[in-house]
Design a protein that fits this description.
Largest sheet: 4 strands, antiparallel
Number of helices: 1
Number of strands: 11
Mean pLDDT: 83
Strand content: 35-45%
Helix content: 10-25%
Radius of gyration: 23 Å
Low-confidence stretches: none
Shape: globular
Order of helices and strands: HEEEEEEEEEEE
Length: 171
């Protein structure tokens, strides 16, 4: 039995291209562990599209059983986001971060157990909002490039789930 070179060459080229494609596909992602300054549960929830991306999320267990919001940039230690005391917040989490650094998440309210909308502005200041001026759970965030926040809220009443857009601090 003889090998026909006309058959062998296309097969060799196809195998070479397949191997090259697999090698390129494997190199598209890089795993970078978030440094954990304490042994707690670190949950990343959001990532922006910058060249050096910012990760946001929540951490439980290092010094509190309640979730604490954090942000992290590769090459640095995670930084806890400021949550003012005296507002009745049991815990909070960062969930989405814009390319310019605005962070949107939720703050769990101790008195109602509902999650209010929490916003950490670019300057680090904190704002909290109740959708429709009533206790309700906020969820499903999106953040437009103009700073508008899109989401939904539900208070478990007959009104069901409602959508909202928050722009410049106004619903």
């Amino acid at each position: 039995m003889t090998t026909d070179s006309r058959t062998f060459v296309p097969i060799a080229i196809a195998l070479g291209l397949a191997a090259a494609n697999m090698a390129m596909a494997q190199c598209q992602y890089e795993a970078i562990p978030i440094p954990e300054p304490c042994n707690g549960a670190w949950t990343p929830l959001g990532l922006n599209g910058n060249e050096q991306p910012t990760v946001v999320g929540s951490q439980i267990g290092c010094d509190s059983a309640n979730p604490r919001p954090f942000k992290w940039v590769s090459g640095a230690q995670p930084i806890y986001l400021t949550v003012p005391t005296g507002l009745g917040i049991a815990g909070a989490r960062g969930q989405i971060v814009s390319d310019d650094g605005k962070i949107v998440g939720a703050a769990n309210m101790l008195a109602t157990s509902y999650d209010n909308l929490a916003v950490w502005n670019i300057d680090g200041s904190f704002q909290m909002f109740e959708p429709a001026g009533m206790p309700a759970n906020v969820n499903s965030f999106a953040l437009r490039s103009d700073g508008a926040v899109l989401g939904e809220y539900s208070n478990g009443f007959e009104n069901g789930t409602k959508g909202y857009i928050l722009k410049d601090g106004v619903y």
